[in-house]
Amino acid sequence: MKLYLKTLSSAVAVAAAVAVWSPSPAWAVKGGHKERGSVQEKGNTGAGKASATAGGVQFDYSKNPRTQGGGQVTPMSNWTPPACWYAPKWTPEQAAQDRLGLDFSPNHDQGNAETYRKAYIDGKYKNFNVKNQGKGYWWGSYQNPDRLDDAGVDACTKLPFWVDKGAQPPADVPNAVTPEVLAQLAYTEIEIPQGKASMAPADGDQVVNLPTWVWLNNADFHPVSVTARVDALNIQATTTATPVSMHIDAGTADAQTYPAGGDCPIHDGRIGTERPPGAKGDPPCGVEYLRSTDGSGPYRFKATITWKISWIGTNHPDPTKLSDGTYGTPQDVTVKEIQSVVR
């Protein structure tokens, strides 16, 4: 399987199951537009067939196809997915060839050079542990190229370390890939469709003091999931986002939302209700504008969807909650005022 790859940092190939990296960021053309930090299988570009590789981690987007105009959820808590992590990066032979990407020259930094030599050439793992080729990997740090401005992107500063095949990474190394960390990385990769809330009357037909019904089209808003895996470690995790509620912001104080707080929960698998023919009275989910947009321009109506997010993974079959997330797309709404004539 040949992949176009995005680059996190300068490195070398680890093994057949681990990503191959070039020294500079790569672009991949998808769907007629360029996306930084995205890659796609060559010759396999149909819907649901995209996959990507990053830092020894491969992402399967088959249940969350990439679309133009979508976006990522915003966590509703202070938690954020890791912007850097540790994963297999070199086999022993590759480590010896690349020298783990470290500068062993005493002419540049004698202290560091001595530390590196003791750790990787003369110490416990003599000569980069080449005698144990095929029995483990040297692990290194990676950064998410889409989050290089995040405060935590430089948090993974530990020097390369050895992990035997089948062994767990050191417990004192935060963000070393495990099924749970893979689930958190997959959280970042989830893309919410751009779909907008449906309205009846539709934009352009709305009038003052006439309730507008608002609902989500299940064809646009449905559960999506991304699977992250590391083949070299035979571990994976699938993170799933499911829409559970919608908050309506009318875009003006001159409006009444239904329910009063503007929060529309899920009911019978749907959020909001499509307006039935001849419907009268207040909608279960909607908005009523009290002033027209004449002279002021359209209102910026926004329906923000809350997504419940959980994960399952290797040796972890029961769904485990991650932070809920929100995503919303503003849409312009024009409201007319019907003039009545008294004779």
Compose a concise summary of this entry.
With 343 residues, the protein is mainly β.
What does this protein structure show overall?
With 343 residues, the chain is mainly beta. 8% of the residues lie in helices and 34% in strands. It is built from 3 helices and 21 strands. It has helices at 92-98, 110-120, 179-189, and strands spanning 27-30, 33-36, 51-54, 57-60, 74-75, 84-90, 136-143, 161-164, 198-200, 206-207, 212-215, 224-230, 235-249, 255-258, 263-267, 270-271, 286-289, 299-313, 316-321, 325-333, 335-336. The strands form 5 sheets. Strands 3, 4, 5, 12, 13, 15, 16, 18, 19 and 20 form a 10-stranded antiparallel β-sheet that branches. Strand 18 (299-313) and strand 19 form a beta hairpin. The termini are far apart.
